[in-house]
Each structure stands twice: as structure tokens, then as C-alpha cells.
Amino acid sequence: MENFTKQEILSVGIDIGTSTTQLVFSRITLKNLASAFNIARVAIAGKTIIYRSEIYFTPLTADDCIDMGAVMRIIDREYRHAGIEKTDIDIGAVIITGETARRANASEAAAKLSGYAGDFVVATAGPHLESIIAGKGAGADKCSKELKATVANIDIGGGTSNIAVFDRGEVIAAGCLDIGGRQVKLDCDGRIVYINEKIAQVIAAERLGIAVGDVADPERLRALARIMVRQLEASVGITERDRYFKMMVTIKDMPLSATPEYVMYSGGVADVYYCQDADGSDLFRYQDMGVILAQELRGSVLAERMTVLKPEETIRATVVGAGSHTADISGTTVAYDRAALPLKNVPVIKIPNDIPPDQPAFAAEVAKRVGWFDLSDVASQVAVAFQGIQAPGFSTVEAIARQLIQGLDLIVRSDRIIIVLVEQDMAKALGQTLRRLLPQGLRVVCIDSVEVAEGDYIDIGNPVAGGMVLPVIVKTLIFK
User: Is pTM, for the whole model, over 0.85?
Assistant: First the structure.
């Protein structure tokens, strides 16, 4: 590594969503930013998207599972079209999102696809994680940071609308509603062939007269779309929540501390929203109600009361451009249980710097963000990262440890590894305190001097340098 200066690597992102499946190949340039006298620090110096696949309808089986054979054929076809061999790929990510993440075989599909297409980050993204991924893919986090303002991204796909709110670049809220362009599907003759169960309840309550088998009536679907848009308005605090809002929320409520100043849209419906021909006559060209939903969104109070920004990506916001590696070394003040190592593909939750880590608000924030992940798989792990405090006293370290344990209660109770990343030089004292306060037998890995961001994944290797430090790979999900 000491002679390393610059390297190019090839990456792929695979997104299997409610409506669509797509791949993106990118070339990532890595550069060593350290001098000859410092530990190597490899950073991303540039990224070029070299191939975008066709956008496919996500293939499903008759029993509503992901059709693995069809998905693999799509992957093989796009690798051939790109002129890329699987062995050429250095890194990548497979993300299963939207209603597809709820399919019975979603976790199995993610693992199988990862092994099939390369050694990748694998995430069956829950609604909150998908919201963050889409928000970053759209560029809402960067806009929020540049504008020093609160920006909401609403990613409207086929089955769900994922909302992420960023304040000065940091995620402050995330949520998901069962609202999307393919909640009502049509056949090629314009007859309705599918209505989502929740949407059917709304149709019945509002007596809209929309039923499977009917020829789609634009005005009736427009009335339904207005109800959907009203829920999106309420999700970002623009209007009051009506009786349908709670029903549309996929998991739990999304509390907002402030109404965002700016809004942007991504997802398939956003592709129509920003398109010049969004008001065209072919309302059902996608055999769903997506065009009508986009039109009603254009006329909503969101555009009146908030500044609408254009995203960097619309329909491709959630597809991961690349999983790029940033090699790093932990600080020398670390605490770890050797039996817990190595760790691979652990998602990171990053606690905002303005929340004091020795206060109850810290525990609440940790618990909230842990809840964004689906931990039903016994092998799944989550790492918590925060800035920490410079040269803390013993009582402060103990207070931080207690707040961490409270916030990580779900992790503690499920006997998972406690993984903590802190930027300040305090990991050894914190790790030792966690061991003392936690139930006996729980494994702890606590490292410092490593900077990560929300949505990153990490690998932590076996100890080196006589056990003083741990090699760390930060896998940043890179977007356009």
C-alpha cells in the first residue's frame, strides 16, 4: 500500500424494485491522499458511469415471489451488452426495494444475487433505508448541505413513496407510504387488472366506482390520485393528516421537527413529473395511474408552499451507482473481542453531531435508526457511529455507554455484536465500559479514528500491527 498512488476499479449496482429492475456500471478512481510518512488514506477521486441498463419490469412468479431465473437472465444479458465479465467487477451492491422487499423470498434473493454477480454489499432495504438511499441518489443531501436548509425528497415508485428529510446534509426523518403509480394496474386494452388492497379501501370509502375489470376512467383515477397526493402533502407537514394517512404509512409514523423549505421528487413518477410531455394525452402509456399521479402532484400545494428542486436522478435515484471501497486503519485505542472478527457488510447508522452522546436524546435517536433496519435475520448486524467527545472524563464515558446500551436495546436483547465507531480518540475506554455494563458474553467491537456516513457499509478485518489496530473498509454507496 505504501507505493499505491492511484487505481481504477469497476463497480456495478443492481436495484430490484416494486416496478423496475436495472443495473448501472461505473468506473471509480481511487487515490491515496496520504504523504509518504503517513498511514495510507484511500479516497474516491472520481466516478464515471460507463453503462446504464435497460429498465425492466421486475419479474415475479405466479405466487408473487421474485422470479430468480428471470432476474438472473436480465443480469446476464446486461453484462453481455455492457461487454463486462463478472470477474471484471471489483465491488458493487444489490438492493431490493419497495414492495419487492416484502416478497417471501427477498432475503434469499439478495444473498443469491450477491454471490451470483460478485462479492457485493447486500441490502434488502426496509422502507426507511430505501428512503435514505433514494434521497442520496437524488442529491437531496447535497442540496440541503449547500443551501444550509431542510430538503425533503419524495421518491414515488410503483408501489411506495419513500420520504427522506435532510437538514444541512444530515438525515433527520425518513418514512414510507403505500402510494405509487402502479397501485392500480391496467392491461393493454385499458382495463383495470389490479388494485392494491389499501387503495381498494379508499375507493370504497370515497365511493369512487373503480373496480377490477372496468375500463379505466381518467377522472375517477384523478380523484383517487388527489387523495394520494394529499397524503404526500401531509407527510412533509404541508397539510393536516386525514383518516387515510395512518393506513398508508407502511411501518410507523414519521415525526417532523420542522417543515422542509425545499422538496424534490425521484422515482418513476418523478420521471413524468419533470418531463415536458407530462400533460400529454396518453395517460395510460405505462398501463398504470403514474402519469395521472404526476399531473396531480404538479398541481398540489407542495409546489405552492415549497420550492421544488430538480434532482440529479429521477427513476434511477435508488439504483446504486457503485459500492466503492475506502481503505482505512482504526486508531490504536480500540477495544474488541477477537471472536467477533472479521465482520463484513455491516450497515452504519450515523448519529448527528448536534445530539450530545451522554443525554437521553442520544439513546432515542440510536433506537429510532436501528429500527430502520430489518433485523429478522439472525445474522444481520448494525453499527452505530457518532463523533464522540475529545478527552472525556470517566463519568462522561460511562454516561455515553449507558445511552448506547439503552439505544441498542434491540441489538442487546438479540445477542448480536455491539459495533461502535467513534471519530474521537476514545474507543478503548468506551469499549471497556460497554463490556463492564453489558450482560456477560456479549461481544463488543469499538473502534475510533474512522469517519463514516449514514448509509455506508463497513468491513472490519482481523487485527494487525500486533493487535493494536484493525483494518477497516468503508463501502460508500456512491450515486450520480
Answer: no
